[in-house]
Amino acid sequence: MIALLKQYKLIALAAAFAVAFGAGMVVRGWWAAAIISDLNAEHAAYREAISREYAQKLVVLAGEQKALQQRLSTLDQQRYGELRHAQQEIDRLSAAVADGSRRLSVRAACPATGADLPGSSVAGRLDDGAQRADIHEEDARRIVAITGDADACAVKLTALQEWAMEVTKGN
Question: Domain segments of the chain: what residues?
């Protein structure tokens, strides 16, 4: 009987140990669940803070991009107006050359003027027109077209340079 009693004590002790171990594991699980829950909450708060920070940065960047687009649009309008004005001037000059109301001339050294003839009493002057030669009409049209293209290219180049400066400003 004593042996049986010792056996029951041993079984009771093992059962008590198993219950204590199980209870400990349950409590440890609750403790681990609480830690994991705290870590999840901390991580969620961290993600939320990062999201807010990046959202604010995106708003700032969007504002900067909008301001840049407005500045570029203003530059485009100005340069387009200049280009249109230059084209109108080119067209006006081309029409004037074509209808003969405007002539292009160059300064020329003309040794056979009246001032250079022996016995001539005509004195040559710089601005009397004797030192100028008219350019043929077709050549004058080509010159006007070339200078017009150069003017348009100058306006386009200026616009491109200003655009590049605006876009790279701050970089």
Answer: 2-168
